[in-house]
Structures are given as C-alpha cells and as structure tokens.
Amino acid sequence: MKAFCFDVFGTVVDWRAGIAREAADFFSEYDLTGIDPYEFADSWRNLYQPAMEACRSGKRPFTRLDILHRENLGIVLGNYGVNTAGLSPDALERLNSAWHRLDPWPDVVGGLTRLKQHSIIAPASNGNIALMVNMAKRAHIPWDAILGAEVTQAYKPSPPAYTRMVEILGLSPKEVCMVAAHNNDLHAARLCGLSTAFVPRKTEHGTNQITDLEPSENWDIVARDFNHLADLVVKN
User: Fold this and answer.
1) Domain boundaries, the chain
2) How far apart are CA 195 and CA 173, in angstroms?
3) Contact status, residue 180 vs residue 11, Cβ threshold 8 Å
4) Its domain of life (predicted)?
5) Residue 85's pLDDT is what?
6) Domain 15-100 class in CATH
7) What's the rounded Cα separation, in Å, for the pair 132 and 147?
8) Helices marked H in the chain — which ranges?
9) Pairing of strands 195-198, 147-148
C-alpha cells in the first residue's frame, strides 16, 4: 500500500459536533429558540446523500458540495419554520461555511503525521477543494494532496470516485488503501479493487449510534484509531 486515502466527514472530522457548535451561535444571534443544535446538524446532514444522488444519477450536472450544502441549508431552516428572507446573507454563508471549520478527532493529526512519513496521504472526500483546504489549514491536517469529488467529478460511492483517484495517483488499485469509518464506503472501494482499512467512529452520530460500530467485512486493515493505523502500517 503506497497511498492512504481517507473519507473525511465522520472518519477524519467530527462533523456533528462542529455543525452543532456553529448552529448554536447562529440561533443565539437570531434568537431562534427551541431548535436543538445537534438535531439541526443531523437534519442538515440527512439531506446530504439525496443531494449528491441527483448528481450521481445524472438528474443534474456535477455540483460542488458547498453549493449543495447551501441549498440544503435553506431547506432545513425552512423545515424548522425559519424564514431565510429575514436573515443576513452573510450570516447564512458563514453558517454554510461551518463545514470548512470542523475539528478532527483527537488521534487524527498525530496519526496522519506518522503515516505521512511512510505513505502518500490524501482525502478521498465528497467535499470540494476549497472546503478540504480550509479545513486542513485550520486543523493542521498534513495532507500530501487534495483528492475527492471535485477532482474526480464523481460522488462516492460511484465507482469513478475511486478509480479516477487511483489513476490520478499513478498507482494500481491495490496500492491505494481507502480508509473510512463507514462500511459502505469501503465496500464500494473494494469492488473497484482498492485495499481497505476500517477505523470506527462510534460517536459520529452521537452516543446512541447504531451503525458502523464494527467492521462488516474482512477488511485488509482494522484499526482502533489513526494512531493504531500508523502503528500497523509503519511497523510493516
């Protein structure tokens, strides 16, 4: 394995806590009482896959995630009875850009820094380039390259999201390891011939999470966290 490519939302960063934090500030600014920030984060995230599916299915051209997030933000605020016409466009853009300011899990930067000494490391995210760069700069995530949907022009789990990434790196599929906390992401990558590594994030969806607590298949690597992943890879 010469390159490790990482799912980002959930695997590298705690999107739920980050969105809830910034949503709480937004609600306070506009005196929007009675909306639970974590429930709001979940509701916004629930529109993520349907928005990308429209691009995957060809119903609309490929559209970068910042735009999809902004469209979904209007929908979710409307679902909570919030009239966005009365809100500052700058405030709405600031909330939408919260996805650029998510915090990594505590083991991420140290584990990636060690892994980087051995292998190429890059995001394999549905996030667009500006989002990934801004997130990395703020959180000191030491990527070698920025890969993902805007580069491959495909949203996971569509096969081109994986195969084009491998082509860009100039490697064979088995030399590229997809790292994710989501079994379905790894399953799609394996179907494209990539190696796979599962790192669970058992509180991605909160303390009552019931999905992706354990590996669902015999992945090539199963690690407790990124430090453990680095231990397994660098040792070999």
Assistant:
1) 3-14+102-235, 15-100
2) 7
3) yes
4) Bacteria
5) 87
6) mainly alpha
7) 9
8) 15-29, 37-46, 48-56, 65-79, 89-96, 108-116, 129-139, 149-152, 159-169, 183-191, 226-235
9) unpaired
In this structure, the strands spanning 3-6 and 147-148 are unpaired
**Can you give the length of the chain in residues?**
236
The overall longest dimension of the chain from CA atoms, in Å, is 58
Please report which confidence band the pLDDT of residue 235 belongs to, taking 50, 70 and 90 as the band edges: confident
Mean pLDDT (the chain) is 96
Sign of CA dihedral 133, 152, 107, 23: positive
| Core vs surface per residue 186-203: b (16+ CB within 10 A) or e | bbbbbebebbbbbbbbee
Residues in CB range of 180: below 8 A, 6 or more apart: 6, 7, 11, 186, 189, 196, 197, 198, 199
Query: In the chain, what percentage of residues exceed pLDDT 90?
Result: 94
pLDDT band at 33 (very low <50, low <70, confident <90, very high): confident
Q: Residue 236: which pLDDT band, with cuts at 50, 70 and 90?
A: low
pTM, two decimal places: 0.96
Q: Which two tokens stand for residue 230?
A: 């680095």
Give the three-state DSSP class for 236: coil
DSSP reduced 3-state for 37:
helix
- CATH class held by domain 3-14+102-235: alpha beta
Provide the token pair at 204.
Answer: 């991605």
User: Once rounded to an integer, what is the mean pLDDT over residues 23-48?
Assistant: 94
Assess whether pLDDT exceeds 60 at residue 60. Answer: yes
In this structure, the number of other CB atoms found within 10 A of the CB of residue 95 comes to 22
